[in-house]
């Protein structure tokens, strides 16, 4: 018990001393030369994005309908690589959720094999969606016009985004039939995409092009691969 009491006293004394030092440092902060200030300067640690998801490299008669959207957010470690600290490398970790509305019906046959077909126009469809949830790792090359005291600036961030689909679901409802699939073997779970973000201040235009198709070569319609390569357009917000 005496040992615990002694440790508690040491902790309290250290905490009080640290708090006093912090107060002094805060009061003296304005006296620190800007050159020293620059050595700690970083930008854009948290990102949030909203996108409209389009499909490229699609099969014949494939079409999207309704709104296909996405949300992505995460944290990026900003690592400046020049003296002005306006050029940096960013590496982070994030989460993304996406929805694709289309006329591609995903089902299984009696043997459990996944089947794919284009829904006829005369079928009354209430809902036909593919949902994906991913863990992502953005890697960026960053250029900006910011300074330690300037928070509204131009930025151009380009790079790649690596992802893994940890959860997915195909959801169909129409003509009195409901079909939900949560295991699609042909889905390419590892994702590779090129990204570009350009903007000034809070709002930034964002585009993301998937470099590999959404399905592998085993997903076919009439012996032709489905492919499907998502392209995302939207806005992205960066927060310190």
UniProtKB/TrEMBL annotation:
Residues 40-215 form the Outer membrane protein beta-barrel domain. InterPro entries: Beta-barrel_OMP_2 (IPR025665). Residues 1-19 form the signal peptide. Keywords: Signal. This is Outer membrane protein beta-barrel domain-containing protein. It comes from Nonlabens tegetincola.
């Amino acid at each position: 018990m005496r040992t615990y009491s002694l440790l508690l006293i040491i902790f309290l004394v250290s905490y009080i001393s640290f708090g006093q030092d912090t107060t002094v440092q805060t009061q003296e902060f304005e006296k620190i030369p800007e050159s020293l200030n620059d050595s700690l300067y970083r930008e854009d640690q948290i990102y949030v994005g909203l996108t409209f998801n389009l499909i490229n490299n699609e099969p014949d008669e494939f079409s999207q309908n309704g709104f296909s959207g996405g949300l992505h957010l995460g944290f990026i470690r900003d690592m400046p690589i020049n003296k002005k600290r306006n050029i940096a490398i960013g590496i982070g970790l994030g989460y993304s959720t996406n929805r694709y509305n289309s006329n591609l019906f995903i089902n299984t046959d009696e043997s459990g094999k996944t089947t794919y077909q284009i829904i006829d126009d005369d079928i009354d469809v209430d809902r036909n969606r593919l949902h994906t949830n991913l863990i992502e790792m953005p890697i960026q090359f960053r250029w900006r016009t910011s300074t330690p005291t300037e928070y509204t600036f131009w930025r151009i961030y380009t790079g790649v985004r690596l992802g893994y689909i940890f959860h997915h679901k195909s959801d169909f409802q129409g003509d009195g039939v409901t079909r939900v699939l949560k295991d699609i073997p042909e889905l390419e779970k590892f994702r590779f995409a090129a990204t570009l973000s350009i903007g000034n201040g809070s709002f930034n235009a964002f585009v993301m092009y998937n470099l590999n198709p959404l399905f592998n070569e085993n997903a076919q319609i009439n012996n032709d691969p489905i492919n499907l390569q998502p392209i995302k357009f939207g806005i992205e917000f960066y927060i310190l």
